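Objective 1b. Sequence-to-structure analysis of DHA2 family efflux MFS transporter permease subunit.
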Amino acid sequence: MEQNINKSPRPPYGILAVLMIGAFISFLNNTLLNIALPSIMNDLNIDAATVQWMTTGFMLVSGVMIPATAFLIEKYSVRRLFLVAMGLFTAGTVLAGVAHVFPILLAGRMIQASGTAIMMPLLMNVMLVSFPVEKRGAAMGLFGLILMAAPAIGPTLSGWIVEHYDWRMLFHFVTPIAVIIFILGFVLLKDKKEKVNIHLDYFSLVLSSIGFGGLLYGFSSAGNKGWDSPHVYATILIGVIALVTFILRQSKLDRPMLNFGVFNYPMFALSSSITMVLNMAMFSGMLLIPIYVQTIRGISPMDAGLLMLPGALLMAIMSPITGRLFDKFGGRVLAVSGLAITVVTTYFFSQLTLETTYTYLMILNAVRMFGMSMVMMPVSTNGLNQLPRRFYPHGTAMNNTLNQVSGAIGTALLVTVMSTRTETHATEMAADAMKNATATTQPSEAALAEMQQQITMKAMLEGINDAFFIATFIAAIALILAFFIRRATPAEDPMEEQQKEKKVTAKLV
């Protein structure tokens, strides 16, 4: 693949266009589902702990698949991988669209995830080998613009569809588009790859599946089952042991499945740390704002989607702008500025009340998204820029894997904070209310029921505020790390240097 692309006098815009459209539709599908989850719960008669597997199952499959993508990208052509990825995504979409029981819906969702897991690292790798370092920021910015359009229109479109049609229309809407993209890829993608004599280490695949899968399952289950559940701490422990064994094995292999040597490059290691920490903080907004808006304030799904729209649009518009600013000024100025905005706005979200206005929420979320738009792509691109070319597949796979893991950890942490603090506040409020009520007159059953409802809403509000407060400190850690960023340039590859020396020696002999 790399050889084919590098021979071209200019970047392969045709290949990139097809890949970006495929990535866009898979991203759109993810954002469409968020607001539809309550409708799925009602229609299939399942609870929140069950429906959350629509997200958890997706993350599990991605966490298992993504580490193997570095091997797949090295071995197979862009065309072959794209058609497999898009074919899996389309098949999963069709299956989910006809599901009338939750297991079939979940199976379709997980098949979708297997295709998406291949798509994103593949696109990132093609972009890295197609553009020189000095133009990579602008290219990544355009990439960000297209992909950020999905979360911009997804929630609003989803809210409209769910209010007017059955939730299955979300999948029926995506299916014909996915089929067209598959056909376009089949017709337009012509790249070939010379046969590469590398083989997958199946024991590494098993270890990575158990390791990343165990971590993702454990942290994702913590919010519902609690940290003292064997399902949580046992799977996390098994995941850690398998992951340590996996890392040790990779260090001994000549052609590792996932090369942890990428962390020997300081800017890549730093960028990975910042994006992981920021991912954890970012989930506070994605998770807690919809709960506050719909559960506590009673705002409709359509209006909830519209509330998130300006922030997502602003993030999409800023993406190419921050890409060009990154090429000009580097990552540190952008990251520090963006993270400072993120910290302040996240703190303001920890001060929500039952009277906070819709307009205030919309503006605050938009400003927060503006701050994050200055961080994610520039920091990630700066880290990847330091890697030698042969590490690109491993760097993109590592970034995507860590994003999944940090997302699961962030979700579990913030859900746990919200749940435990809600219970604590509810207990304290109930005790105070009963004390005040019995001090005057014995309350009636109706008054008690109304009091209980008010306490539940206020306690949940305080729990959400506490979770946002913790997210503020998490974002502050990323801000501190951002001060250590410096502009990265491709490092020398010892293996390439050795090959050059061998060629020189062979000529002399």
